[in-house]
Amino acid sequence: MRTIRPIPPLRPPEWLMQSAAEVGGLSVALIKSGVWRSAGPAQLVRIERALRTWGQSMAALGVIAAIRYPERAAVITGDDQITYAELDRRCERIAAGMQAQYGIVAGSKVAVLCRNHRGFLEATLAASRVGADVLFVNTEFAPPQLQAVLERHRPDLLVRDSEFAPPAGLPSVVSDLAELAESAAPTAPAPSAAGHITILTSGTTGTPKAAPRVPTAAGLAGLTGSALSRFGLRAGEPMVVGPPLFHGLGLLTSMLALFLGSPLVLRPRFDAPTLLADVEATRAGAIVAVPVMLRRLLDLGPNAIAEYDLRSLRAVISGASQLGAPLAERFIERFGPVLCDAYGSSEVGIATIATSADLLAAPGTVGRPCLGSTIRILDDQDLPVPAGETGRIFAGGGLVFGGYSDGSSKTVVDGRMSTGDLGHVDAAGRLFVDGREDDMIVSGGENVYPVEVEQCLAAHPAVAEAVVAGVPDDEFGQRLIAYVVLHAPATEDELLTHVKANLARYKTPRQIVILDEFPRNATGKVLRGKLSPP
Question: Would you give the end-to-end CA distance of the chain in angstroms?
Answer without folding.
Answer: 83
